[in-house]
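Bug #2210: token dump truncated for Argonaute siRNA chaperone complex subunit Arb1?
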Amino acid sequence: MSDSQDQPVTTKDLPLRPAAPTTINEPHQADHLPETPDDKPDSAPNSPILQSPEELPIEFDQAKKKKKKSKARPKSKRGKNKPTGFEEYYVDAPITPEDFNNEKELYNVSRPLIHRIEDALLRYQKNRRIESDRRDVFMKYLSYGGVNVGQKMFGGLADRDLQELDSEQILQARTMTSVGKDRSNLAVDFDAVVRGFLTSFFPYYFNPETEDMIKLATVTIRNFLSYLLYHDVCLEYNENIDQARTSCDIAAKELWYNQQLMAKSPGDFNSCCSLLFGGELHDTYTEDNNWKSPKDDAPHLTTEIARKIVKFALAGTGENRHALRFQELAEKNTLCAVRIEDIDGFEVTAVHPPGEAVMEFYQTHAPDLVPVGKLLARAYRDPGMPDFDLSPEERVVQLPERNFEFFMEGNLLQYCYPGMKVITPVWELNCGFHYFEDAYRTYGSNYTPLLNDLMLGWKEPRDLTKAESEGEDDSSVTL
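Reproduced locally. Full output below:
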């Protein structure tokens, strides 16, 4: 073995990679092995002399560069909290003189109206963050008004192609709305389209279940109309557009009342009349029907309860002539009701909630019942429904206007207003008052049925029996 005073081994003599471990069986093999820390107890265990170059610590003269932290955006500009442009007090920012001159040329009255509408739609959608629910309503409103909605054929562009276009060309390439040349000869009426969409089409296509859904539709359409006014897109129709905004405000209030009345009608009094005198409940009622849903807390309606509700309504709210006539016919057992034909429902003319005297009467004698008020109405025919098949002689005859007097609970009268149309069966009792059953549909005071909803999805017809080109067999045409 070598002497312990041998020269120390330097890093130059060390192999680049540590040798594989071998078993020392012969004495002469130990002469070529470097001394280990165990052989020199006074040597440091982590001495750099005894470590391979791969294990040597590397010291950098320069400290690592710290990454710059990006400044966090405020919550008002992130995700769902980012401004959309449809907030209650949102207004468009003032435009620069350059933008004003551009818009003055862009929306000049000398340009065709359809081109001005197309340009306004491009810029409006660019400046608003229209979320999915709002976009569904807005696009359906545009389609209802005659605007073509959908991606243009072969209109998709890659990002590489978009880099070669300016901002105006990018807007044109990404647009999903256009007005066809065949629509240029149609009458322009912003107010009629708004009334037709909100009062006739929207409630039964989207079936709004909350007041927020109704506000979403009315606010979106009103916001677009305000944009047209602010940027002078259609100067010749400014008065008509302003009237359309008023129609949006009316619909925002009335649509929710309509939905509430349709869901909660006809009320206790009218249900009792249907049960006792004639109607849907009268035809399906059985006295020994004691079945009750475990999820329904309402008491089971019986003929005894129905008589009590009707009698207290006549005594508290009805006129003396109605009460006396009712008592006289009831004693003779000749009370009967007849359904009024040739009408679709009624239109409300006046609402009389229960007064203080009626409230006190119910509180004293029938605290378990809901006080009843009056609803005055007239016969109504839905113009959106087909006309009756009448002969020419019958069409000449003018039918007299029929007026109705209904009794209704105060918690339902709060949803009624003059001008409301209710599509429902109406019955007349032979003692002089009327009642109605479930409301099938309810319309607002500015109800306007249009033919626009029939044109949704309409395409120009073409003859499929002819060949598309000369020499092509007709059998190649498929249906």
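Output looks complete on our side. The CA atoms of residues 139 and 149 lie 7 Å apart. Marking as cannot-reproduce; reopen if the truncation happens again.
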